[in-house]
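During the second year of the project, the team shifted from modelling isolated chains to modelling whole assemblies. The rationale, set out in the original proposal, was that interfaces cannot be judged from single-chain predictions alone. As a representative example for this report, we include one of the complexes processed in the last quarter. Its constituent sequences, exactly as entered into the pipeline, are reproduced here:
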Amino acid sequence: MSLEKNILVKLNNVGIQQNGKWLVKGVSLEVEKGKIVTLIGPNGSGKSTTAKIALGIYKNIEGNVEKLTNNIGYVPQKISIDWTLPLRVKDFMVLTDNIKDELIDEALSLTGVIHLKEKNLGNLSGGEFQRVLLARAISKKPELLVLDEPVQGVDFTGEIALYELIKKISEKLNCGILLISHDLHTVMSATDHVVCLNGHVCCSGSPKDVARNNEYKALFGEQASQTLSVYEHKHDHEHSVDGKIKKN
Amino acid sequence: MFDDFFIRALVAGIGIALVTGPLGCFVVWRRLSYFGDTLAHSALLGVTIAYTLDFNIAVAIFITSSIIALILVKLERKTNLPGDALLGLLAHSSLAVGLVFIGFLTFIRFDIMGLLFGDILAVTTDDLLIIWIGGAIILLVLKLIWKPLFASTVNYELAEAEGLNPNRAKAIFTILIAAIIAISIKMVGLLLITGLLIIPTAMARNISDNPHKMVIFSIIGGLLSVFLGLFSSLEFNTPSGPSIVAAALILFIISLFKIKQTIQLKN
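Output from the structure prediction step:
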């Protein structure tokens, strides 16, 4: 069955305890090739934890994880680079894989930070660093992308552009994406499946289904269900990172 | 060619500096300098065991240091003590036990100063073999685990998520530190080995903007320290270990001026 549906990773009733307290419990979900699964939920609801379980970072978990690919790109929520380690963007790009220079340039161009290639990671702004993280994850052309708040700190227009890029990547590479977003406004139209977490799976389904769900409304309020509607937005031009206008 | 003790010391020093350069970078990046110290202190215990059982010193040190590293890992899991307290506990207790043992070994004439601070006169042709073969193995293994070790040094979760097995790399790296201590103890002495691991690396950090440069400068710094240290050791009849580490310190101080200059240039 896994083969038919092209499942990349499958969580079966997983959970994890820390100091006798459940961080998440009873989560089941699957990510298929070419599909985008979005995890939403309030702070502390276990979104990042669930992603880390899916990635196999946590060892002593309940339930089981079937990981059917090893070609994974990961954008973690938090990452701090120690100043004792001098690291340029281009060193960081080949951190887990020996990627060809053309692919590095391509990925950095896609996320709009090719001009930072020689810069030291410590000198980047939050938004620039986030773009580099995303570029690194996509440059290896992964089968599964796990993106934990991939656009945090990115300015609003950049945010839209990056979400469009993520959608494009999922189509182009036909990879599965597990996306975490605390920002309900930007849950994309491209999302195939939304899982709403609050220590357990509150509800799940297509974005529209979830928006109509009563538990979801109870968790986020009535207003939120309107904002989680389909995000469609068009410009006749876009801006590159340095502010220049790029015609479409 | 290796008849002259000074040539032997020089060849030994070059072999050691080639290995301490890259290993030292990881020690600094991973914040393991006190861990290195602890393993080095425990080496004294290894030396006493080697003398008691008439065993090769380098091998005995390698084994005891590896065991101490394992005990540390166990204690970290089983107790609520912070890492530095555990390191202090192991470093000083193994040093103390080692010294107590030496007290019992009255039948052997012991050069305790040479052990603590290094002695260039003590380097034999056999030691050269151990240093160069051992050093080559250490570098080869380090090259093999470089990717996962480096990636997990930058970010553990990234390395684990993308399938690099950082835990295995970390365990192997620990063994490599025990190995470098074992092969360099005669030259540098057990109190100062960590100095040779971290001071040239600290110098290299001041003048590098990327990891590869830092490794290369660290090796060059180590080599220069060995040359300067050994020649002054010969000239002034000082112990080799302190002379090498003092030379490394001088290089570090010079590298600080380099930073000042570049900052001024930018302004």
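The longest helix of chain A spans residues 156-173. The mean pLDDT of chain A is 82.
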